[in-house]
Amino acid sequence: MDITTDGPALVLAGQFDVRSTMEVRAAIYQHLHECLDEEIFVDLTDVDAVDVTALKVLAVATRSAERDGRHLRLRGCGPAVRRMLHVSHLRRLVAVEREKIPA
Asked: Which CATH architecture has domain 2-96?
């Protein structure tokens, strides 16, 4: 898992699964602590695969951010991520940024 920051966005690349959840969890909470923006993004554009354990990390981080009066939103969710959010019923717990439709 490759993790970088870009302003209010935490950018993930690679496989986001049970093997990388601890690393991603730590990065999310560090980013929430360091970034003072009200809205924080987790960019999943370059995530190849995701599992339910990884999505649970995002759901818990979303609730934690909300308790602090902030918003955590997912960005760049491909079809596989959207499908897993729907199947796991975690879609109700996380906010997904709307994709811009090209003109």
From this structure: 2-Layer Sandwich (3.30)
